[in-house]
Amino acid sequence: MKKMQSPSAAVLLAAFLVLISCDCPEAEKIFTLKKGSASFSLDLSQLENPRGVLPAAICGGEKKVTANDSENYHEYFAYDRRRALIVLSADPLYYADIRSGDYYHALEFEHSQLAAQKSPSEKKPASIPFFRTYGNISVCLYFIPNEMRYSDGGALADVNSSTSSDPFRLYGAASELLFYTPCFLEERLYSDMLNLSKGGKRVIQFTRSAAFDTQFENQRITWYERPEIAPLFSLIAGRALDAAADAHSGDFQEDVPGDEDFLFLTSVPLGNSQKKEESFLADTASGRHGIALMVRGDITEYLRFLEGEGIGFDEKAELPLSLVIEDSYTNYVTADWAIEQDVQLFVSYVRGDFSKAGAINARGSCCRIYYPERGKTLYIRVLSAASGEILAESSLYLTDLVISEIAYHGSSFYAQEGDINADDFIEIKNISGQPVDLSSIDITLINTNLAERFWCGPSHESYEGCASLSYDSLDTTLAAGERIIVCTPVNGNSGRLFHKSNFGIPPNCLERGAISKISIGKGYSIRLSRGGDLIHAVKIDGLSGTKAPYRSMVRDSGGEWKTSENQIISSPQGGGGPKDFCSPGFAAEGEL
Q1: Is 105 a domain residue?
Q2: Which of the chain's termini has less CB crowding within 10 Å, N or C?
Q3: How far apart are CA 254 and CA 242, in angstroms?
Q4: Would you tell me how many other CB atoms lie within 10 Å of the CB of residue 320?
C-alpha cells in the first residue's frame, strides 16, 4: 500500500481559512438595508418559527406572526433567535435585515406588549437600549414611544438616558446633516435645522410634500420637494461629527469619535412635535406604535442605498446660497446669505414677482431691510452684483402682533396664598403702523405633553369643553404700538383677575382672563393664529425669566428675549428684598 503523505502546514492553514470564510458569521453582513416584497418573503421563509407583527400582505402564513393593517400603525417586525427583520415602511416595502440574535429578548418583550394590545402610552421599555458592534458599525434598536420619542423640550431623544445615542445630541455635533421625512410638517425639526444651518452646518432636507401651517411656509432654508421619492419612513444622517461641539446642550461630554458618522431610521413619519394631534412620536393618545434604528460608524453602504432612492448628501442646490431672513420685531429684518460678496437684493410682497422691486446694493454677507410691511409675507431675491446670477431666494411672514412679555412663574402677590401661578400673563404688542383688529385672533397653549389647550379667541366653540365659557375672544382693536395683557384667573375664579394696582399697569391697557385655570410653564409654546393661520409662536425655553425673585421674560429693544430688570414698586417685600420684576402694559428702559 502506498503511504499517504501528511498535508503540509500551508495546506492545513489554507483549508482552515476557507472554513472560516464559509462558516463564520462575522464574514457575512450583519446589518443590511433592503427593499421589495420578493426579497422580504425569501428572508422571512429562512426564519425558524418566526414571531412578530406584519401587514397581512407579507405575513407569509406564519402562525405566530400577527397580521395588523390598522391605520397609523408603524411597528412591524419578524424575528427568531438568530435574526430580525425590521420593517421601515410597509408599502412600498423597505426593511433592515439584522443577522444576529442580539435583539431577540427585546423583540420578544415588545411582541408580548403588542399581543396584550397595550396602547403606545401604556408600553414599558424593554430595557435600556445599548449599541451592539458588528465590524465597523454599531447598531441600536428602539421601540416608539416607550424608548424613543420627543422629550418635554421637543427634542428627539432616547427616553432612557441622555447619552450620545440621542439623535438630538448627535445632529448637534455633525458638520453635515441629511434629513428626510415623507411629509414635511415638522415645525420643531425645521426650526432646529434652521438654527444649525445658521451655525455653519450643511443641512440638506428632502420630502415628498410639505404641509406647514399657511403662514409657516417660509423657505428660509432649502428643502427639496420630490413627490417621486418612494420610502415612507423618516431618517436623519450626520457626517463629520465633532466631539467638542454640541449645538443644543452646550455640554457634550460623551465620547463621539469624529469618524463615527450616524444614520437614524424610524418607521414612524416624523410628526409635528408642536401639535398633539400630529405628533406621532409623542407619549400621548396621539402617539403611534413604531420602531427606530441608530447606526454609528461607517455608514457609506447605507448612504449609497438611500442615494439610489433619491435621498443623498450630494444633491446640488438649486441656488448657490441659502438665505436666512430674521425678524427683529422692530423696524427692520435681517437678510443673511452667509458668504461675503457684492450683491443686489430685490424685495417683494408678491410670490415670484420682483418686476416692481428696486435694487438694494449690499456688500458683505448680510444686510438690514428697514420698515417692512407687516401682516404680509416678505419675499427676497439675492443676485450677484457682478454677473446678475440669482444666488438665493427666501421668504418670511412678518407678523403684525408679537408676544412681547411672558410671566410664566407667576408673582409673589398670590404665592402667599398658595397659588403661585395666579399672575401668569402674556403681553401682546401691535408692532405694525396700523390698527389691528383682535376679534379674529386665537391664543392657544401647547404644553410639555404636546396637548393643545385653548385660551381665548373666536374658535372656542371648536375646542372640547369651551363652547359655553366666557372670555371667548379679544373684541377690541389695538392701535399702532399699543399692548394688551392676557392673564389667567386668580385662584381659578374667572371673575377675579390680577389687580392692575399691584403691577402699576396703565389704565388704558386692556386685560383678559383665560377660559380656565391655565398656568404657563417651561417648555410650553404659545401660538397666535388669525382665521386658523399661524402668525406668531413663542416657545418658553427657560433661559429667560426666574422664580424667587419672580421675573418675567421680556423682549429687549432689539426683539431678543431677556429677563426683566424692572422692579414693581408695590411688590410685597416681606423682609426678603425685591420679589417681582416685570413691565406688563408698558416698556421699561431697554425693552421692546
Answers
A1: yes
A2: N
A3: 11
A4: 14
